[in-house]
Queue: 2 jobs
Job 1
Amino acid sequence: MLTNKILVAPLFKYLDIHSYYFYRLLMKNIYIYNGMIHTSSYLSNYKYYNNIFRKLNNKNTIIQFVGNNYKDLYKCIRYINIFKFREINFNLGCSSKSAKRCNYGIYLMNNYNLIINCLNSIKEASNIDVIISIKHRLGLYNISYDYLLDFVGNISLYTSCKKFIIHARNILKNNYSTYFNLNKTILDYEIVYKLKKDLSHLNIILNGNIKNLFDINKHLSYVDGVMIGRGIYFNPLFLVAIKNYILNKNYINNYDIENFNQNLFFNKNKISKYIIFIFYNLYNYIVLQKKKNINLYNIIKHIIYIFNNIKNASIFRNRILRSINYFNSFNNYLDFIYFIFKDFI
Ligand SMILES: Cc1cc2nc3c(=O)[nH]c(=O)nc-3n(C[C@H](O)[C@H](O)[C@H](O)COP(=O)(O)O)c2cc1C
């Protein structure tokens, strides 16, 4: 049940190997895009990154590089070939101040030649069957269909990149606030639908503010796939809904956007067995991480978003966060689960 149609977006500094483990507990076969790694950062710290790559599920995790030096990119790909990632993604969407200063991410979007050189470097350096994709926005400061068509058309013509993940926004000029550039610029899905219609031979994935099954269902009638970032991070149970949707399209009819978590997992103020099951299944993982002296907070911080959009969410979150401090003295993980849920089972 691996789907190319619904993908988890890279969220630099938010997603990590613990969140990947947790997400795959909720939905085993889901493709997750790893947060961007700058080529020079990789080359100066490759042992550190390789150590992480070794722990990833390389069939289902996609690596993303960012940068503008195609020779460096070539070296990076040669180094990571041993991990046999199925897809390598090049970031053309990052809009930070440092991206502007160093000319990478979205600021490359007006420089076709450089992008083409970078993508051709990836192709030359990589294993034969690797998928090459880019993640970009509609454009830099303005939205123009002709520009987008030209951009995607040219890149697909001169490189082996046939997969385009499009965050359906542009950015604001001279405003480097991530918040603004992720929330305040206009989202234009229609332009991406049109692109897919005109370039139907390409794999077009739509991204931006997708938060429920109704959105997914609608977009999938126009494009090849959707990518979801914050909609999953802040509501991981969305993955369970996605899993059910893939198994059974009719599931959407029973899906209540507003009260989804509340109805399915926390019905009538009682916790569903499924939530307990998730916590129970985390046991081995948590024990293993504890042995490695990993701070438990780094694992739990992702999991507490399970309690989004439900009554008593703050009680659960507080109990979990409080219990972390004395988790070391808990001999029995079941006690820990009981402590969190005691009034709700
Ligand atoms: C905290 C954070 C980190 C992000 N890191 C990356 C990244 O490393 N690479 C990338 O291509 N996009 C990154 N993005 C953009 C997201 O992948 C995605 O395009 C954007 O959040 C819109 O999708 P969403 O509304 O589903 O979250 C990041 C966004 C956020 C909020």
Job 2
Amino acid sequence: MMEMQLGSASGLIDDSADWNECAIAALVDWNANLGGTGVSFNAIRNSTQPAGSNDGFNNVFWSDDIFGTPFGEQTLAVTAHWYFEQAGVDTLAEADVIFNNAQAFNCYRGARRLGPTPESTSMSDMKRTALHEFGHVLGLDHPDQTTPPQTEDAIMTSTVTDIDSLQLDDIYGAKTLYGVAVVGIPFPPRDQVLDFFLDLENEYRDTLGRQQNNPGSVNAEGSAVWFPEWLRYVLNGCTVEEAAFRVGLQIIGQGVQPVCGVVASGTIEFPPRNESLDFLTDLDTLYRDILNETAPDSYIDLEGKAVWLQEYLRYRVNGCNNQEATDKVFQQIRGSGIAPVCTA
Ligand SMILES: [Zn+2]
């Protein structure tokens, strides 16, 4: 619930009746793009709730400073957050959006109105500034200030641009924060990965004549869920370490974590196989030492799991269906060499 208290305005270029109407349009835009997250904004227009810090109310208001701290000279607005710690994780308690009284605003679409001498005649757009700040309220940060910086178009970049609406990067970021998996790379459903994994056990037993003598702590379901999840993070811009950390957070119940970047479609680079093996080794340690899990011995050694799960997923994200990918992996296991992927 946002306490909208930006007050009256006249002569707004897009015919908004007042500042609150201009900023509420930004809340409406966010709500239209938060489907599936379970999160949406509400607004109290012309709220009289006093603007206090850490008082449990999300005020949206003008001020000369940020609860006593001066605005930066160029700063249009800030979002001030307060958190409490829950199970070792910062949990958002309140976010106030404070617009800088010293800046000239209007409400318009399109290119920025910078004026002939910027400082005196520039008018910043309240709507895109509000879209940005409400993104901060949701928990987003500036994508151009990561290491390395992202270069995608976004309303969340650290400085205002001619972009006046939410971009895919903003929307994907927000959805991912709230547990909606949005990735450009199509990962197969978990039950299909599990089917493949169980078939792989049989292949090792029946075709390769292996014994059921590979101890481990991760059962088939764990392997089928967490290996693809780790790979999903890696393929979406995370280092192998970051990916393993995010999977660890999921395993201990912290929910789906954001991916590290938006990957251009077309090129899907898989990590070296030794890194997949390292992840499975760490996963086994986590299951054994942290979760105190045990699993039946497997026909497949850990290296076989790393190689063939990765190979199966490589076929899947490159256009093969479950049967095609399974067949191609088993052909490889039987010595036929690497088959072409299924994309044209
Ligand atoms: Zn910002």
